[in-house]
Amino acid sequence: MEKIQYRELDDCVRLSNGTVEVVVTTGFGPRIIAYNFVGGENVLGWHPQAIIHSELGEYHIFGGHRLWIAPENMPKTYAPDNEPVEYFFDEAENSIRLVQMVEPVSGTQKEIVVRLAETGSEVSVKHRITNVGSEELELAAWALTIMRGGGVCEIPNEPFAPYGSETLLPVRNLTVWAYTDLSDPRWSFDRELIRLRVDAQLHEPQKIGVLNKQGWARYRLADATFTKYFDYTENAVYPDMNSNTELYTGGSFVEVETLAPLVKLKPGDATEHVERWQLEAAS
Asked: Do 81 and 67 form a contact (C-beta atoms < 8 A)?
């Protein structure tokens, strides 16, 4: 563990295993703001001027990876995370636990545990939301990763099978928003993949969601490929018309998002959602 200044942000911590490094913030969050090969360029995006205004105050997007509450709600989802977080370093695990102050409007407390594998590029990111209020809450953990612009998002389709008596029922959903335009040239659809290309010149936002049973989503850049893996829970109900994977872009801004199942949390209960990240150098 090494305390550093990252860009204009003080109070950051860098973890490394010699192959990759991860930078987290402790002055606000919990957030992960960098993930890269040692000596390489950060694959996570950076948008310091992006601010969302709500009756609860200013939410500073900044960039990188964050934890939100789904389904999306204004203003609860956008409750600012501008206060310092507690952090606990586990040297044996090469991990750091970031714990947010209690968020009074939603009655929740968020935390993220980041753990680097001993070797290679794998990073485990465990998200946890605890109900610290006095009433039952229904929510889902929502993990959003802002990527560096200029790449292409990929999510897998379900395995193709020809029409027949065994394929009469649908295998998954495709969720769209009112502003989704599937004729937009940034989208492409083929048998194996749905792709979303990031184009800094096209500012109109685009978003889709799917029930992704394959358990991975990918982002390809010219110099590296980022993949996140996650568990699919059969027969669970997910937010956003049963979506556990979502893609969003507008201009150079792009997010690869995963969601946990909706759960009902009694006071004191918590829900967890784990992503496993990998980074590959471009061949």
From this structure: no
Cα 246–Cα 249–Cα 253 angle in degrees, nearest 5 = 125
The full DSSP string for 216-264 is EEEEE-SSEEEEEEE---TT---HHHH-SEEEEEETTEEEEEEEPPPEE
| Cα–Cα distance for residue pair 171/160, rounded to 1 Å | 10
Using omega within 30 degrees of 0 as the cis cutoff, is the peptide bond preceding 30 cis?
Answer: yes
Structure-token pair, residue 173: 């959903």
| Alpha helices (runs of H) in 9-142, residue ranges in sequence order | none
pLDDT in tens, 132-171: 999 999 999 999 999 999 999 999 999 999 999 999 999 9
How many Å apart are CA 29 and CA 99, to the nearest integer?
A: 8
CB 43, CB 23: distance < 8 Å = no
Q: What is the pTM of this model?
A: 0.96
**Which is nearest to 56 in space by CA: 30, 82, 34?**
82
CA 65 from chain centre, in angstroms, equals: 6
214: left (phi over 0), alpha (psi -120 to 50) or beta: alpha
Q: Report helix, strand or coil for 168.
A: coil
